[in-house]
User: Which sequence fits this backbone?
């Protein structure tokens, strides 16, 4: 008995040591490669915090950025858009990541110091359980569903199945976007509706629950759920870019006042072609440069 | 001469003694400072809902409508309070009989087998992280309830089943200790009078250890009350008092985890979440006082 | 006769419930291990996580969990021992001691989410430690400390009176008696308790979401200077632990194999907690034997 436990302990220790050894090898190689094109003497550390929807993109970009700028460390934190905006306004973070405009979360006095950097566009679509044979929903139909006026798919020409709403919490940036651009109004939380903050859980619940409807960022949509058209327009990247599909939002990276040089370097890198056509696309966001329209905080759309 | 050397020798001892005394006292002081600052900070945030944002206290505790960014914003926390109490009490109702049976098994029926197999099993249950409980609940219990009962599967029922398994170790450990501490004379007397084992358990063991058993149950409820991640994954999170056990609802903890990160600190909505945290904090005190009251009764 | 039937039925019921509990645990462990074990490989345990591609691992998270545990214990053990010694040896039975006991009790039953929020407000924002391992360790200390106090107290209470009095009668100071006579005797109890408490630290997630953060910056495992920001030993860097990683992958994971990663990480977490339990028993017995009969 004693011996087996010793063996287990020894095995664990070996594994842990091996882990360190292996990783060190990997990163050393990476270092050699990129030291060739080191281009700046900027040093310092950057803390970006906020939106969990934006976090994967910033993390991915920060990895390549740090390979290029050895002196700079970028730390990316989740925590939610509210946390990000509070921390950047309070000076604890250098960059606040947010799914929404700062003025929608903070009061005017705090928001006025913040400088907006739009780094990507995220499209969203209403998604339903794959067994619901509905391909298109109009704005009015969505409003009826999310306000509880329509409670059965039968009334919309679908199967005789109760509609199960999978919503986001009222504080969520994703919900704010969906309500603003798809429904055109704020909705109340209905009795019996499910609320989940995380896209993964929303997807899992929609895929499993009969008659479920919710909404997801385009990057999360896969075969387990069905994305429906909005007013006959399919939720595709092109339709978002040319302005025909309205449910989308900017991803913002806020700084307080004008950024420090190393922060500016990072933000410039975020909007460079390398990231916009690389990580942004890989992660299912839409590059800002590709957008043919611009939209302000009040939702007014202009052709570029 | 002799006296002075004695004093010199005694001195380092004295210094050491005082250093030790002061060090241990500082450690205690730290504990006290921590708890006071926790209460102070959480209360200062939580009370600003009432003093800064001018929300009516009575409305907060009795209102059933939670729409913090509606016009006007409404903060009715009753659904969360109801959700927390109903899930944790229901969880205790499921877990208490199981826990007590497990300890009876370990103490009265099969001490050897019980100590060797059941106890490690229960300690292991205590060690499983709550994230994993939530994950299992979402992948096993929710689909099961969805298929068997009307509704979406998420809700109080799923939440309390997950919590019941989580608090089972707490209840079992405490009740086992209580049963084992019972003087054997009491039991032997009962057996000597010709009682069966069940009669002894039912008439002697359970009544005498009742306050201790209840202590275990209350501590279990307290743990269930404060559990956050596992519950949030299976409860559905609609801010309403549900019509059935299988309808989506919220607890205090799930409301906090769901929205804390999305709201800016200092906003009315954020403060309201801190008020929920303050309620959790105060409930901890209530639970501890109930436990103390029960413990005093069991000593008599 | 009726009493005997009742006895049999009741016994059967109790045995069935005990069996049910074992079945629940075996079912849960089986569910997690069967789904997760297949995914555990050397590569999985050692490589860094991937955001969008397949084949990410949990190397940094595993390291963070262990390092955070060590850090927490380094803070908790001296404080907990000190406070425990005070409670069991120096405290006089009066109102103040009663009050301290209440404090310890309340502190140990605070919901972890409240501790996490307190950490966010005070440690992360007010003291300015930011999302870091150190903030996480302090938050974990808050609920580990009362446990430690209780364990120390129990350990010291288990020391035979004669042993303590014999030492005092020899003219040895009280502090010396505690540290060199009583603590060694109490060591097995304290050690076992500490390791079991450590197992709970390992699985904690709710409090860490708000204090240690949800991201793991790139680590350079060749840089062992604790002051360097990429060094794994730097306590002031943000760190995602294994339990938090499971939460994150489950909820926001974009990688195509997110559910396998979550399952694999859950299995690793459970195996580690299992190892902690076994280690606690084994060490406790070993030390006990060493300090008592077989000297």
Assistant:
């Amino acid at each position: 008995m004693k011996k087996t436990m010793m063996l287990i302990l020894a095995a664990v220790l070996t594994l842990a040591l091996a882990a360190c050894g292996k990783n060190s090898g990997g990163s050393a190689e990476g270092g050699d490669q990129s030291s060739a094109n080191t281009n700046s003497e900027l040093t310092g550390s950057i803390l970006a915090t906020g939106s969990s929807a934006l976090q994967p993109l910033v993390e991915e970009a920060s990895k390549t950025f740090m390979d290029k700028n050895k002196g700079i460390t970028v730390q990316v934190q989740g925590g939610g858009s509210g946390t990000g905006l509070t921390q950047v306004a309070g000076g604890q973070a250098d960059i606040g990541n947010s799914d929404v405009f700062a003025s929608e979360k903070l009061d005017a006095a705090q928001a006025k110091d913040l400088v907006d950097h739009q780094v990507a566009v995220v499209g969203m679509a209403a998604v339903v359980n794959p067994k619901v044979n509905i391909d298109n929903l109009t704005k009015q139909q969505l409003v009826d569903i999310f306000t509880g006026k329509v409670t059965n798919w039968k009334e919309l020409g679908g199967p005789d199945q109760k509609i199960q709403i999978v919503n986001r919490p009222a504080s969520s940036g994703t919900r704010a976007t969906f309500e603003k651009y798809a429904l055109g109004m704020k909705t109340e939380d209905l009795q019996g509706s499910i609320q989940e903050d995380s896209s993964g859980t929303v997807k899992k619940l929609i895929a499993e629950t009969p008659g479920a409807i919710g909404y997801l960022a385009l990057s999360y949509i896969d075969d387990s759920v069905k994305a429906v058209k909005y007013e006959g327009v399919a939720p595709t990247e092109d339709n978002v870019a040319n302005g025909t599909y309205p449910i989308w939002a900017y991803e913002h990276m806020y700084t307080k006042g004008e950024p420090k040089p190393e922060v500016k370097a990072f933000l410039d890198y975020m909007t460079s072609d390398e990231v916009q056509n690389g990580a942004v696309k890989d992660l299912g966001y839409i590059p800002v440069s590709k957008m043919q329209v611009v939209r302000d905080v009040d939702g007014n759309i202009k052709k570029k | 001469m002799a006296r002075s050397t004695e004093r010199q020798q005694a001195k380092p001892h004295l210094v050491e003694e005082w250093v030790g005394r002061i060090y241990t006292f500082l450690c205690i002081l730290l504990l006290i400072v921590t708890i006071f600052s926790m209460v102070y900070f959480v209360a200062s945030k939580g009370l600003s809902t009432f003093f800064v944002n001018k929300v009516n206290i009575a409305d907060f505790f009795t209102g059933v409508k939670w729409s913090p960014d509606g016009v006007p914003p409404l903060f009715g926390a009753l659904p969360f309070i109801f959700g927390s109490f109903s899930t944790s009490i229901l969880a205790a109702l499921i877990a208490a009989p199981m826990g007590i049976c497990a300890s009876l098994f370990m103490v009265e029926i099969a001490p050897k087998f019980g100590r060797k197999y059941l106890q490690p099993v229960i300690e292991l249950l205590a060690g499983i992280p709550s994230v994993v409980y939530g994950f299992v609940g979402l992948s096993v219990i929710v689909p099961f309830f969805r298929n068997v009962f009307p509704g979406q599967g998420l809700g109080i029922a799923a939440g309390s089943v997950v919590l019941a398994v989580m608090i089972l170790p707490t209840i079992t450990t405490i009740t086992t200790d209580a049963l084992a501490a019972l003087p054997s004379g009491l039991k032997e007397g009962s057996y000597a009078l010709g009682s069966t084992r069940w009669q002894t358990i039912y008439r002697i063991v359970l009544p005498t250890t009742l306050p201790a058993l209840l202590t275990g149950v209350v501590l279990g409820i307290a743990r269930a009350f404060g559990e956050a991640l596992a519950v949030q994954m299976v409860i559905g999170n609609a801010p309403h008092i549900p019509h059935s056990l299988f309808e989506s609802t919220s607890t205090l903890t799930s409301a906090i985890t769901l929205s804390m990160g999305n709201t800016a600190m200092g906003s009315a909505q954020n403060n309201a979440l801190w008020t929920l945290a303050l309620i959790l904090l105060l409930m901890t005190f209530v639970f501890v006082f109930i436990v103390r009251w029960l413990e005093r009764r069991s000593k008599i | 006769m009726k009493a005997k039937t009742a006895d049999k039925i009741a016994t059967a019921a109790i045995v069935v419930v005990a069996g049910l509990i074992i079945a629940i645990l075996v079912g849960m462990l089986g569910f997690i291990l069967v789904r997760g074990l297949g995914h555990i490989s050397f590569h999985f345990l050692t490589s860094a996580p991937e955001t969008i591609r397949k084949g990410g691992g949990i190397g940094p998270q595993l390291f963070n969990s262990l390092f955070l545990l060590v850090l927490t214990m380094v803070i908790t053990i001296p404080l907990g021992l000190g406070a425990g010694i005070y409670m069991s040896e120096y405290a006089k039975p009066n109102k103040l001691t009663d009050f301290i006991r209440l404090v310890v009790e309340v502190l140990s039953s605070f919901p972890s989410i409240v501790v996490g929020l307190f950490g966010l407000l005070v440690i992360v924002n007010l003291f300015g430690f930011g999302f870091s391992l150190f903030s996480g360790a302090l938050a974990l200390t808050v609920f580990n400390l009362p446990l430690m106090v209780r364990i120390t107290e129990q350990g010291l209470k288990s020391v035979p009176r004669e042993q303590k009095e014999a030492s005092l009668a020899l003219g040895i100071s009280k502090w010396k008696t505690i540290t060199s006579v009583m603590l060694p005797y109490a060591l097995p109890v304290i050690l076992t308790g500490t390791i079991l408490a450590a197992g709970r630290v390992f699985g904690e997630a709710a409090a860490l979401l708000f204090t240690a953060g949800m991201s793991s910056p790139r680590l350079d495992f060749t840089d062992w200077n604790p002051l360097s920001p990429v060094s794994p030993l730097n306590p002031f860097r943000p760190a995602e632990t294994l339990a938090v990683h499971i939460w994150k992958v489950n909820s926001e994971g974009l990688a195509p194999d997110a559910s396998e990663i979550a399952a694999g990480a859950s299995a690793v977490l459970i195996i580690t907690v299992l190892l902690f339990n076994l280690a606690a028993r084994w060490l406790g017995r070993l030390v006990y034997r060493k300090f008592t009969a077989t000297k």
User: Anything to note?
Assistant: The first strand of chain B starts at residue 66 and ends at 67. Chain B touches chain C through 84 residues (CB under 8 Å). The two ends of chain B are 58 Å apart (CA to CA). Chain B has two domains: 2-52, 74-299.
